[in-house]
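Why does residue order matter? Because the sequence determines the fold. Keep that principle in mind as you read this record.
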Amino acid sequence: MKNVVLFGLGKMGSSILKGWMLKNLNFNFFVVEKEYSSRSTAVNDGVKSYENFEQLLKFVDEEKLDIIFLAVKPQQMSEAIKVFSRLNFSKTLFISIAAGLSFDWFQSNLKKDIKLVRAMPNLPASVGFGVTGYCKTNNVDKIELLDVQDLLNAFGKAVYLESESFIDIVTAISGSGPAYVFYFAEVLSEIGLNQGLSKKNAKALAIETIIGSAKLLEMSNINPKILKENVTSPGGTTEAGLEILASEDYGLYNLLDKTVSAAKKRAKDLNSNG
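Structure:
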């Protein structure tokens, strides 16, 4: 049974661990996290947890750490990986979820022949409905890739990317995307409130509309454009609303295009400043 270390137990790391525990995967899991309260949560889930790698290596030989899952923030990664430069991790596969930190960055800051997978999950992983885009260096073999798929599919759906060049746009769309959806629900709810609905009803109508629409998209397997047309009667209320939302000058497409482009640029900036 392979050993997997989750390095970092923040919001995303905790979501990932929860997915792993629910799936009863065939791995031995360990957590490295400096915050005591976060480690306590992992211990309650039955996972052995350590304050740092030095503590972990008192119990597990470094050569037996098959996979190290880096769930550390990009701004903290330089400091976090210093420990690996002093140890022998030549056979270890690394998986990083740090936005903006490229293969080149890890190869320059750790070692040239590092086995690495870059993955970009999103927050719905915490309820088992995440989506993760991932790519790999050429030295990751087929068996290791199957392990990666098992780990990533445990908290949602994993989408393989043929090139690292796609990872920043994945970050901007699905990595940041839940915040866009949450904001849409927030705004729709506030508009309902301003139009006279109670706060409770405005919130329920906004949220349940989003949930129901997403379920319909998933279960019907019908193109979103077709579903949109099915809801839109000529001369009806939906058409009136869509004329604003689909405006070529100031509509949703242009707004989201700018939104995604800004998020993608920030991902690239993180890599440049890493």
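The chain has two domains: 2-169, 177-272.
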